[in-house]
Design brief:
mainly alpha; elongated; NADH_DH_b-subcmplx_su6
């Protein structure tokens, strides 16, 4: 029976393995909850839970302390304040944001702080989006697929319908009747060089 290859269950080893796993989970939880600090996070709010504020547990001094804490949470007119030193930016973001900060500083007087913040947030993104659209449009316009190169964009659009053979005035597309070699020639028949 002992040599059949089945391992015996060892309760002590099982308890030790379970304990080690539990200690590991506790350590990971403590690192996450303490934010990699040796001490747990601390709150300075007096009596944060309602059960701690029951009348028979709080004294007059405790009530005054709690009242002062609540009054301290009310922000004044000039709060919250933006302190640039608390929001550091790297060298490239400072260069990219310098023109927008300059414009925002002069726009704030006429628009107000909230609208100026919205402008500062949206204007660079809108400018980059419009510049990207212009770049894509220009690239597709000047890099159209042709018979001379294997790269480029193929753009297609629908033609206006023709009724009774009447071609519309100032057509944007070629409406002439095509022969067998005209389909997908990518500008080969309209070339100006290498003609026989």
């Amino acid at each position: 029976m002992a040599g059949d290859g089945v391992a015996k269950f060892d309760p002590k080893a099982h308890v030790e393995a379970t304990k080690a796993e539990w200690l590991r989970k506790q350590r990971v939880f403590r690192e996450m909850y303490y934010s990699k600090s040796k001490l747990p996070p601390m709150t300075i709010e007096p009596f944060p839970f309602e059960r701690e504020r029951l009348p028979f547990k709080m004294t007059a001094e405790d009530r005054a302390l709690r009242h002062q804490w609540i009054q301290d949470q009310v922000l004044s007119k000039n709060e919250p304040r933006y302190i640039p030193e608390l929001h550091p930016k790297n060298f490239f973001r400072r260069i990219y944001g310098a023109p927008w900060d300059y414009v925002t500083k002069y726009v704030t007087a006429s628009m107000g702080i909230e609208k100026a913040r919205l402008f500062r947030f949206m204007a660079p993104k809108a400018a980059m989006f419009i510049a990207g659209l212009c770049f894509i449009n220009d690239y597709m316009k000047h890099n159209e697929s042709s018979w001379e190169q294997a790269k480029g964009f193929n753009t297609y659009s629908n033609k206006l319908p023709i009724y009774n053979g009447e071609i519309p005035e100032n057509p944007s597309r070629d409406y002439r009747e095509k022969s067998g070699g005209d389909f997908y020639n990518r500008g080969f028949t309209s070339r100006t060089t290498h003609k026989l």
